[in-house]
Amino acid sequence: GSRSSKTFKPKKNIPEGSHQYELLKHAEATLGSGNLRQAVMLPEGEDLNEWIAVNTVDFFNQINMLYGTITEFCTETSCPVMSAGPRYEYHWADGTNIKKPIKCSAPKYIDYLMTWVQDQLDDETLFPSKIGVPFPKNFMSVAKTILKRLFRVYAHIYHQHFDSVMRLQEEAHLNTSFKHFIFFVQEFNLIDRRELAPLQELIEKLGSKDR
User: For the whole prediction, is pTM greater than 0.90?
Assistant: First the structure.
């Protein structure tokens, strides 16, 4: 229906030929080696903000695709609240349009979230795509908020829709994407441990396989 196409945000592209594009290619090449711990490390001589920016865009695109595969199962009826298991419920606020957190269905929440992230990524003052344009002083806190919120989409998919993911035979794809995401946020300490609690067991399991 129309809702799933609306929820499915357009892919955010990194301009070809730009330095960020080179960084993305580097990230893809190291990912191919299969060593995710190594793949998330800051490449030598690179700017940390730029590395975080490129990867944040990449995770946004990945989560978009993963959520896009299950939108028909994530409906107002099946998911009247945005949750990650019975103990975690999320209410939406973006601080500008919606200041007081509102309770809404998972598809509505994820639509708000992805639209909000897209707006941040498209903002040249926050995510400059031109070489030599400096990142703003608050860049790190913006990136942390984006990643914290993107984590909630993974948490919702794992807790509420994993059976659908398995039926679609997407679990390997989801696990790899999530593992990459977790190793990345752990490497640079981008998400508070408390925020990761809904998937703590899974995070430990994914991490122990790589020790």
Answer: no
